[in-house]
Design goal:
By secondary structure, the chain is mostly helical. The protein has a single domain, classed as Ribosomal protein S20 (Methane Monooxygenase Hydroxylase, Chain G, domain 1, Up-down Bundle). The chain contains three helices and no strands. The protein is elongated, with a radius of gyration of 17 Å.
Length: 84
Amino acid sequence: MANHSSAIKRIRANDAKRIQNRYFHKSARTAIKNLRLTADKKAAAGLLVNVSSMLDKLAKRNIIHKNKAGNLIGKLTRYVGTLK
């Protein structure tokens, strides 16, 4: 167990951030899944804006790697482009 008050505070802060990061990551995965299940091009284009914004924010906060975010956005953009 931690012996210093600052170490105890750091443990609390890390736990809070971990829970928040898991929430943001899971929300983005659910949004990606919903986008991939969408067959309407107009609706998918609207979702793509939100999903790409979520992924950029995750990459900015180092929750996911910036290249992973770019790869996902590229794949989703290609998918929306193939819809009719």
